[in-house]
Design brief:
heterodimer; A: 6-stranded mixed beta sheet; 4-stranded antiparallel beta sheet; B: 12 helices; globular
C-alpha cells in the first residue's frame, strides 16, 4: 500500500461509498427553536462525488441545515443517513470523526495562530501518537508530525497561500481568511465538505479563484461538496444539483437549468406574497 | 535632602554593604514568587481555554490542601492520600464541567465569572463541613519533603536556604516545564489553545468542548494542589490561604491573562520586588508591612504604560 502520492493526486477519504451513490441522505428533518420553525420536513440527498448547492432567500434555513448535518443542532424530527449509518443526533466532534468538515459564513479561524497552525489544527484529529511522544517531540510522534506537515504544505501550495504561511490569520484580508478556512477543512480530508457562503464578501477575481479551488477539490480529490451560496451565477456554474429552501421548506430540487426556470423559485426570490 | 538620600542612595548602599543578606532577601522573594506564579498559572490556563476568569482558583488551593491533610488525619497513609487527592480534584473538575460550565455554555463572560464565585462559596462550605474549619498542619514530613536547611557562605557572609523551599522551587520548575511541553507540543495542548481562540472553529475540527474543559480544570486542580502543599508547609493549611490567591491578580495584570510565560515572570518579579521593597524601603521608611499593597501599586504603575500587561497578547482585529 506504499503508493507515492503527488500533490494533485491526494484522494478523498475512502468512505465505502462508490461514486454516484448516496453519501448523505436527509429524511424528513424538522428543526425548531422554541416556537420558531427553522426547518420543516425537509428531505434531500447528496451523492458521492457531486457538488450540491443549497440556496434560498435570507432566513430560509440553509445554515440551520448545515448545522444539522455537522451536529451543531439536533433536529426534533427526521433522520440523517451518512455513509450508510443512520443517526438522529451527533456531537460535532463525532461528525468530524465520520468525515464531515465545514467552513462558516462568518469565518471561524484561530485568529491568533498562523496560517500554517490553523491548517495544521485540521489534522489534529488524525494524530494518534501517544501524548508522551508528542511532548518529547521525538520518535513516532515526530515522524507523524512530519507526515502531517507534508500534507498541510500540499494544501498550502494548492490554495496558493505560500506567502502568508507564517502570518497570524487575524491580520489577513477577508478573502484570504476564507481561503485559509477552506484549507483547514481540506486538511481534514473529509468525505463531505460543507461550505457556508464560500464567496460572501469577495470581489470578482477572488470569486473566480475560489470557484476554481472548489472545482479542483471536487474533480482532483473526488471530494463531495455541499455548499450554500447567494451568487446565482456561481451556483449555477458550479453545482451538479440544487436544492432550494424558502421559509424552512423545500420548494425545488433539481439540476441548475430546471431550478432556474422553476416558477416557485422565481417567486421566492422576487418576493411574491405567500 | 535627607529623604532623597534615604530613597535613592542608602538602600543600594545597604545592598552592596551586605551582599549575603541581599541574596537571602532575593531568595525569600523568589520562593514567594514561585507560589504567586503557580496560582497565576491556574488562572491563565482556564482563561486561555474558556475565557473564564476563575475566581475559585484560590479556594481550590485551600480545598486541595485540606483534602490531602484531611485524608491523612482520617488514617489514609500519605503515599495514598496524594493520588486520592488528585482523584478528588479530577472529580471536582468533572462536576464543575457538568453542573456549571455545560449549562452556561455561550453565556456572556460575566455570568461565567459569577458562576465561579458560586463555586468558591460552595467549596468553602463543603470543605468546612467535611474537614472542619480549624487550622491544620501540612503533612510535610510524611510526603518526604526534606525540612533541614542548607547554609552557604558567600562573600564571607551567611545565606540559609530551607530545603522545603528548595523542593518547592524545583517541584514548580518541573511542573511548569511539563505543562509548557504539554501545551506547545501535544495534540491536547493545541486543542486547548485553539478552543480559547474560537469555540465554533474548534468544534468544527473535532475538538470536544467537554473533554478539554474537564482536562483544563483538572490541570488547574493539580496546580492548586502543588501550591497548597508548598504554601501549607510554610504557613499551615487554613481558609485564610485563599487570600494569597488575590496576590495573583497583580501578577495577572503584569503578565497578561493569556500568557503562561507572563504568569511565571510576573509572579517571580512581584515576589522578589515586594520583598526587596519591604526590607530596603518599607521597613526603614514606611514602618513595614508593605507587602500587602506593594504588588497592586506596582501593577497599576506598569498598566499605565502597558495596558495589555508585560506579556499580554496584542489583540489583532481588522475593522
Amino acid at each position: 500500500m506504499n503508493v507515492q502520492v503527488g500533490p494533485d493526486q491526494l484522494l478523498a477519504r475512502d468512505d465505502g461509498v462508490a461514486k454516484g451513490e448516496v453519501l448523505l441522505d436527509i429524511r424528513n428533518v424538522s428543526l425548531s427553536f422554541g416556537g420558531v420553525k427553522a426547518i420543516t420536513d425537509i428531505s434531500f440527498n447528496v451523492l458521492k462525488g457531486e457538488i450540491r448547492a443549497i440556496i434560498g432567500p435570507n432566513g430560509a434555513g440553509k445554515t440551520s441545515m448545515l448545522n444539522v448535518i455537522n451536529g451543531f443542532y439536533t433536529p426534533q424530527l427526521g433522520t440523517i443517513v451518512f455513509r450508510g449509518k443512520q443517526r438522529r443526533s451527533m456531537k460535532p466532534h463525532e461528525a468530524v470523526g465520520q468525515g464531515i468538515a465545514r467552513t462558516f459564513q462568518n469565518v471561524a479561524l484561530f485568529k491568533g495562530m498562523s496560517t500554517l497552525d490553523n491548517i495544521m489544527a485540521g489534522r489534529s484529529v488524525m494524530m494518534k501518537r501517544n501524548i508522551g511522544w508528542q511532548m518529547l517531540w521525538h520518535g513516532p510522534a515526530l515522524a507523524e508530525e512530519i507526515e502531517h506537515r507534508r500534507a498541510v504544505e500540499e494544501i498550502i501550495d494548492f490554495l496558493e497561500i505560500q506567502h502568508i504561511r507564517r502570518t497570524p490569520v487575524g491580520k489577513l484580508p477577508y478573502g484570504l481568511q476564507k481561503r485559509v478556512e477552506l484549507g483547514r477543512a481540506l486538511a481534514m480530508e473529509p468525505s463531505l465538505l460543507l461550505l457556508d457562503e464560500p464567496m460572501a464578501g469577495m470581489n470578482l477575481e477572488e470569486k473566480e479563484d475560489m470557484s476554481r479551488f472548489i472545482l479542483d477539490v471536487n474533480q482532483q480529490r473526488g471530494t463531495t461538496i455541499a455548499l450554500i451560496e447567494h451568487d446565482m451565477g456561481v451556483v449555477m456554474d458550479l453545482s451538479d444539483r440544487v436544492v432550494v429552501l424558502d421559509y424552512g421548506k423545500k420548494i425545488a430540487d433539481d439540476v441548475p437549468d430546471i431550478v432556474k426556470a422553476d416558477q416557485n423559485v422565481i417567486d421566492a426570490y422576487l418576493g411574491v406574497p405567500h | 535632602m535627607e529623604i532623597l538620600n534615604d530613597i535613592f542612595v542608602k538602600p543600594f548602599g545597604d545592598m552592596i554593604a551586605a551582599p549575603d543578606f541581599f541574596l537571602q532577601v532575593v531568595w525569600e522573594g523568589l520562593v514567594s514568587g514561585v507560589l504567586y506564579a503557580l496560582i497565576a498559572l491556574g488562572f491563565v490556563l482556564i482563561y486561555k481555554s474558556s475565557r473564564i476568569f476563575n475566581f475559585a482558583q484560590g479556594i481550590m488551593v485551600v480545598f486541595a490542601a485540606l483534602t490531602l491533610v484531611g485524608l491523612y488525619e482520617r488514617g489514609v497513609p500519605a503515599f495514598l492520600a496524594l493520588p486520592l487527592t488528585l482523584a478528588v480534584m479530577y472529580l471536582l473538575a468533572m462536576a464543575i464541567e457538568r453542573v456549571v460550565l455545560r449549562p452556561l455554555v455561550n453565556q456572556p463572560d460575566i455570568i461565567l465569572f459569577m458562576a465561579t464565585i458560586g463555586i468558591t462559596m460552595f467549596l468553602i462550605g463543603f470543605g468546612e463541613i467535611i474537614f472542619g474549619g480549624e487550622n491544620k498542619v501540612m503533612i510535610t514530613e510524611q510526603l518526604m519533603i526534606p525540612t533541614g536547611s542548607f547554609i552557604f557562605e558567600p562573600f564571607g557572609g551567611f545565606v540559609s536556604i530551607e530545603q522545603k523551599d528548595l523542593t518547592a522551587v524545583v517541584g514548580a520548575v518541573v511542573l511548569v516545564g511539563a505543562l509548557l511541553l504539554f501545551l506547545n507540543r501535544s495534540k491536547m495542548g493545541r486543542a486547548i489553545r485553539a478552543l480559547g481562540d474560537d469555540h465554533q472553529a474548534a468544534l468544527s475540527v473535532g475538538i470536544s468542548l467537554s473533554t478539554i474543559w474537564v482536562l483544563v480544570w483538572f490541570i488547574a486542580g493539580v496546580i492548586a494542589l502543588a501550591t497548597g502543599i508548598v504554601w501549607g508547609a510554610r504557613a499551615g493549611v487554613s481558609f485564610a490561604l485563599e487570600v494569597i490567591a488575590y496576590k495573583a491578580l497583580p501578577v495577572l495584570m503584569l503578565g497578561g491573562l493569556e500568557s503562561v510565560l507572563g504568569a511565571i515572570v510576573g509572579g517571580l518579579a512581584i515576589g522578589i520586588l515586594e520583598k526587596l521593597f519591604e526590607i530596603y524601603w518599607g521597613q526603614p521608611l514606611l514602618g513595614g508591612n508593605t507587602e500587602t499593597w506593594f504588588a497592586f501599586v506596582f501593577a497599576l504603575i506598569v498598566l499605565l504604560f502597558r495596558p495589555q500587561g508585560l506579556f499580554g497578547e496584542r489583540i489583532i482585529e481588522r475593522v
